[in-house]
Amino acid sequence: MRVITRMNLKNESETPLIDFAGRPLVNPTADKLLRLFSLHSVVTVGDEHIIYSKSGKADHLCKLLELLGFTQKQDNPLVVKHVEHKNKIP
Asked: What is the pTM of this model?
């Protein structure tokens, strides 16, 4: 996971700002990638995919999947509906 992501990051024209606090994702470890993935949940209802994002950045999941080689820029099946999730304190 780490090796594939690092190889694909080298092919990017600009380093994506998808690390924590909007920093550039540079030489990510497998642990960091898993923590970034853990900020998102995908729920499928029928043909619709809904992305829930704890960070408020659902598009980051799509970029992570692209860097891992699961999707391509033009062929991203998860970009259907984004639902931003924000933790609220009662």
From this structure: 0.74
